[in-house]
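> call design_seq(struct)
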């Protein structure tokens, strides 16, 4: 399958028109034979891409003490319990933060407060934080999430995810796509039979079908 994926990626990159900005490479996934009104049938997975996303991923950490100090080395922003309470009083600021941030990480003991203060903002956006257990290494967790994308169908039959950038090697992008397809086939009720089609494209370029 890897060779045929790479052929589709190469075509998508070669046929993309010249742009004056760095385009992302995206995957469009079409599902079939699934009742997506039933939340248990929806796709909602975090996938670590072996070759990275090719883009900046903004990560905010809720932490205190030593964990906060270490998180500051790798995260885009570190917020403590006091900041959390302030956000709870400022709905517009909370929404802006949610929209600007790709992933949130939080010490497990702050999760209850996050649910109370930010649950109504982060929950509907699918951005509730990844809990950080006492034995977890915050630096390792944040660095892993920088290479992570979210597969989230919600109730739609077609959904999209980022798999790279136009200046990445086609082989690296293909490796990322291969990992996503394998995860989907493992998680969907009927595996590949629930996939109606997968297409790869740059932001503004033509879509090319990826054989599955």
């Amino acid at each position: 399958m890897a060779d045929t994926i790479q052929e589709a990626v190469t075509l998508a990159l070669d046929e993309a028109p010249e742009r004056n900005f760095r385009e992302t490479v995206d995957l469009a996934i079409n599902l079939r034979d699934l009742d997506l009104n039933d939340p248990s049938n929806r796709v909602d997975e975090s996938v670590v891409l072996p070759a990275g996303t090719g883009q900046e991923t903004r990560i905010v950490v809720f932490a205190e003490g030593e964990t906060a100090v270490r998180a500051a080395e790798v995260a885009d922003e570190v917020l403590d319990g006091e900041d959390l309470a302030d956000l709870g009083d400022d709905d517009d600021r909370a929404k802006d933060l949610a929209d600007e941030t790709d992933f949130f990480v939080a010490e497990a003991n702050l999760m209850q407060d996050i649910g109370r203060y930010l649950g109504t903002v982060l929950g509907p956006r699918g951005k509730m934080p990844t809990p950080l257990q006492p034995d977890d290494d915050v630096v390792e967790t944040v660095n892993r999430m920088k290479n992570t994308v979210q597969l989230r169908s919600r109730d739609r039959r077609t959904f999209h995810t980022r798999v790279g950038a136009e200046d990445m090697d086609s082989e690296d992008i293909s490796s990322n796509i291969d990992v996503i397809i394998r995860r989907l086939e493992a998680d969907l009720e009927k595996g590949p039979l629930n996939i109606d089609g997968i297409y790869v494209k740059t932001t503004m370029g033509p879509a090319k079908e990826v054989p599955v």
